[in-house]
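Subject: Protein record for review, amino acid sequence with backbone structure tokens
Why sent: The fold of this protein is of interest and is recorded here as tokens.
Enclosed: The protein record, placed directly beneath this head.
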Amino acid sequence: MEYQVPQFIEIEDKIIGPLTLKQFIYLAGGTGLCVVLFIYLPIYLALLFGAPVAALALALAFYRVNGKSFIEVLEAGFSYYVGSKLFLWRHESSRNPAPPKTPSLAPERRGDSRISRGKLSELAWSLDVSVGGGSVRDGGKPDEISGRES
């Protein structure tokens, strides 16, 4: 038995004329608020406050930013503005700059060929960091090891 797979599932259905249900609700809400403003306020105040309400209702109903609806853009902007931000950069004073620590790749004693486990892991870490193409342990193969020509 064959099943029919639905097509165009990301396109909303037109329910009220050429408008989707969301568009109709945004426009009806904006129109209702503008009517209330015109009934209860003098005409110049109603125009002053009604124009931004009408513009917001039209933007919510029809305006898209990079393929996203305007309500999604407003939600992302609000959550960015309200949410906590993580800053990691610290300014160091330039009076006494400390020389950067670089791990030495050579063992401290040349006569002894044994390396402690801590020193070995430090060397492995420095090799992982210095190789730009990834490390062999992470699954990436540098050009020298894999045999590819640059």
About this structure: The beta strands are 14-16, 19-20, 64-65, 68-69.
